[in-house]
C-alpha cells in the first residue's frame, strides 16, 4: 500500500524532505514507517526515540495498523507556546 | 475561536472576542519570545506548525475547556513564522462567571498546548540554531 | 505600576508596561462588569475608592508579588466612577520567566485586592441600588 | 483630642456625611469612634459588625489607641475587582 509521510522540524531536517510517498507491505504499522526512515537516515535513527506519530492528524501508538492512502506525520517533541 | 496566523497577534481583538455581558472575569495568557535561552542570546525565533492537525487539537482544547469548566468563551491564537523578541507567539483568553474557573481553564489550555499541539520553535543563536523542545512534550513521550 | 483612574482602561498599554525581553510569559486578569447580580439585571455600576489607601495597598501587593514570586513586572489598574457592562473595572498583568509564577502571582493579586483594597461597587437595579460586598471581604472580617 | 473620621460607601450613607471631625477623650480607641456614631445613627449601628477601621490609611484592630489629628476611616466590606 501507498502512504504519504510528512516530516516536521528536526525530522524534516533529518530526512531532507518535507514529504515522501512510500510503498509498504500490507499490515504495515507506524513502527514500520519509523524503521523505513531510520534505516536510511542516521539523523532520523538518532531522534527516533523522541518522535511521536500521527495518522490522518491524530496521534497514534507505534503499533497502529496503517491503511492505503494514510497521511503519516513524524512529530518531533513540540515547542509551541 | 482558534487560529494560527502569520500576522502579529492583536490582543485587544482577542479580548473583544471573549468578553460577554454575562462574564465577570477573563484570564489571558500571553507567551512572548525571550531574548535568551540555554544561557545564550537569541537573535531570532521562528515557528512552524502542522497547521490542520494543530487547529484540530486547538479546537479539541477549546471543547474540553467548555466541558470541564463553566466558561463562556475561549480564544486561542498561535503565531507562526518569525516572531521578534517581546512579541506574542501565543495568546489564550478565557472568560467565565468566576475567576477561579477562568484561571484554571486558561492554565490547562496553555499546559496542553505546550505538551501536544504540533508547533515547533527554532531558536537562532550567534553560533548556530536549534529546534526547541518543551519540557512538557518530553514528558508526554514517556506515557 | 499601580493606578486608580476614571478613564477607560487600555489593556494593550498595560501589556506594554509588563512585557520585557527577559520574560517568557504574561498572565493578565481582567474583571468586567456583569449585566446580572443577585438574579436581577444590573442597569449601571459605579465604583468609589478611598484612593490614597487603595493605592498604598496596591503598591503593597505589587511589592509582595516581587518578594514571593520570581516576577519581572506587575501592573494593577482599577477604574472608578461609572463602568458600563462589558468594560473592565480592573486589569492585573504579571510577567515572569515561567508561566506558573505569572499565573500564581496574578491570582494572588486579584484575590488580595478583592479582600482588602478599599474600593466599593454600587449596583443599580430597576428597583433600587445596593453596595456590593465581596465574599472574600466578608471572610476577612472574621479574622 | 480631635480626630477626623471619613466614611465610605454604605457607611457614608448611614451617617449622611463623608467626613466629620469629632472631639474624643484622651485614650480613645477605634472602638470609641464606632460607639460614637453607632449611638447616633441607627443605620451605622446595623452595619457596625461588618465594618473595618483604618487609621492613617492602615487597617487597625478595634482596640487601637488613637492620637490627636488621626484620620480614621470607616471601611464597609469592600467590593473592588
Keywords:
heterotetramer; A: 81 residues; alpha+beta; Ubiquitin-like (UB roll); 5-stranded mixed beta sheet; 3 helices; globular; B: 143 residues; Aldehyde Oxidoreductase, domain 3; 4-stranded mixed beta sheet; 4-stranded antiparallel beta sheet; 10 strands
Work out the number of β strands of chain B: 10
Structural class computed from helices and strand pairing of chain B: alpha+beta
Number of helices of chain A: 3
For the biggest sheet of chain A, the summary is: 5 strands, mixed
**What oligomeric arrangement do these chains adopt?**
heterotetramer
Question: What's the shape of chain A?
Answer: globular
- Spatial strand order of the main sheet of chain B: 1-6-8-2
Number of helical elements of chain B = 4
Overview of the structural elements:
The complex is a heterotetramer, with 2 copies of chain A (81 residues) and 2 copies of chain B (143 residues). Chain A contains 3 helices and 5 strands. Chain A is an alpha+beta fold. Chain A has a single domain (2-75), classed as Ubiquitin-like (UB roll), CATH 3.10.20. In chain A, strands 2-1-5-3-4 form a 5-stranded mixed sheet. Chain B has 143 residues and is an alpha+beta fold. Chain B has one domain (2-142): Aldehyde Oxidoreductase, domain 3 (Alpha-Beta Complex), CATH 3.90.1170. Helix content of chain B is 36%, strand content 37%. Chain B has helices at residues 11-18, 51-68, 99-116, 135-141; strands at residues 2-5, 25-32, 36-37, 40-41, 44-49, 71-79, 81-82, 88-96, 119-125, 128-131. In chain B, the strands form 3 sheets. A 4-stranded mixed sheet of chain B has the order 1-6-8-2, sandwiched between helices. In chain B, strands 7-5-9-10 form a 4-stranded antiparallel sheet, with no helix packed on it. The longest helix of chain B has 18 residues, at 51-68. The model of chain B has no long low-confidence stretch (mean pLDDT 93). Classes of the chains: A alpha+beta (81), B alpha+beta (143). The A-B interface holds A 6, 8-10, 49-50, 52, 54, 57-59, 73, 75-81 and B 31, 47-50, 52-54, 56, 78, 89-90, 110, 113-122, 131-134, 137-138, 140-141.
